[in-house]
Amino acid sequence: MRRAVLVVLDGLRRDFVTAEQTPHLAAFAARAERFPFYRSAFPSATRVVSATLATGCWPARHELQGNSLALVENGALVPHDAGHPDFLQHKRRATGRSLAVPTLAERLAPHGGAIVFNNVSPGAAYAHDPDGHGHVYHRVGSFGPGRTPLPEAEQLRITLDAEGDRRMTERFVAEVLAARRPALAVLWMGEPDHIQHNAPLGSPAHLDTLRAADRNAATVMAAVDKLRESGDDVLLIVGSDHGHQTVGGIVDIDAELIAAGLKESEASRDVLAISNGTSALVYVHPDHHDRLPRLATFFRAQPWAGAVIAADALGDIGQAPRHGLAFAISMRADDTPNQHGVPGTSLAAKPRDGKPDRLGCGQHGGLAAFEQSPFLMIDGAGFGRGAERAEEVRVVDLAPTILRHLGVGHGDMDGRPLQSSAPRAETQPKETPPCEAPLVP
């Protein structure tokens, strides 16, 4: 039986995958193919990356533009947190569709199905299957086909921490891999992302949580070995969705726009600068498009702005100017180390609704080197043992890779399958800097 297993350690940037900090992942690298030029989406944030991975398409096509975003509703720009449990259902009511292209869960429904166990935000979890084609398990609520809520005894009642991930992993291995045996099984851990938002990168608390996440990954690897011994042809993908930078300062972009006379007030809906961590999506209502040239000049003159991408260039980062999206901003970043010697510091855009953004802790969302440095290792047919792929690969490539292994069509996706026609020869590891070039789909 052909099967695919996807394990995601949320937020684990690849320079933390070492023999000292993640010994099981380091050992796995000797049998898997490694992808040191693997890149995230923009924003490099879990909700939008989840939709991008699940569909094999960039946000320009699946239309979940960010972790937070705006929709045009009844002629007005309305800000939303896409992490809310009901957001994608609201988006369907407001726009006619939750995501604009099929997910893996939908494509695989007639081919063995998909089961997702997920411990990040509910919005990110449900982005894997917003229309109820398979099973999604999350601590806020778990659903079967048709988005039917599962009985309480089947719900995933865990905490967002290392202990919650451990309990989820044990259930995933026993129930999903060994017993239910879907074509695609996804385990998406909340750590180390959760601790990195709440403690400095490289701190004892962070490193302890890294080791716990590494042990969970090892539990799945061992279970996959048993499946193979019993005759299953398993493609095992282990990776992360983005990396992290240290927050070196916080910028209130809406306040800056008001001070510059480019936004009427804090409550106005003429211009919305919506934080996505170390990036921002800027929406401009059509009635105020006369401000676009002044806004472009303003953003490009700001010392807090790194990359400024206007509407006509949004396609270069996988976005499109829908629902008033006029600019994308990746905040200023550099390689300055934090107090634990971990390089990579970024400014963050102040979040809406009083959400915390902790100085000195981790954050992500932009195009900076370390947030665009997730890790990826793949073990299975078409991938070389101990090999290293020198070319850039992207998060949209995972869905077609999974579908190719399972013998299901994937030609309408933005990504491409990563299998080689023959196993690659083993190559010597080499030093590879984090990707610093602009993200170009």
Q: What does this protein structure show overall?
A:
This protein has twelve helices and 21 strands. The chain is an alpha/beta fold and 441 residues long. It has two domains: 2-243 and 370-406, 3-Layer(aba) Sandwich (Alkaline Phosphatase, subunit A), CATH 3.40.720; 246-363, Gyrase A, domain 2, CATH 3.30.1360.110. Strands 2-20-11-1-10-6-7 form a seven-stranded mixed sheet, with helices on both faces. Strand 13 (271-275) and strand 14 (279-284) form a beta hairpin. The two termini are 33 Å apart. The model is unreliable at 422-441 (pLDDT under 50).
Determine the number of helices (DSSP H or I, runs of at least 4 residues).
Answer: 12
CATH topology of the largest domain: Alkaline Phosphatase, subunit A
What is the CATH-assigned architecture of the largest domain?
3-Layer(aba) Sandwich
Taking pLDDT < 50 over at least 5 consecutive residues as the criterion, the unreliable ranges are 422-441
Shape: globular
CATH superfamily of the largest domain: Alkaline Phosphatase, subunit A
Question: Would you report the number of β strands?
Answer: 21
Report the average pLDDT across residues: 94
Radius of gyration: 21 Å
Helix content: 25-40%
Distance between the termini: 33 Å
Largest sheet: 7 strands, mixed
CATH class descriptor name of the largest domain:
Alpha Beta
Portion in strands: 15-25%
Coarse structural class: alpha/beta
Strand order of the largest sheet: 2-20-11-1-10-6-7
Total domain units? 2
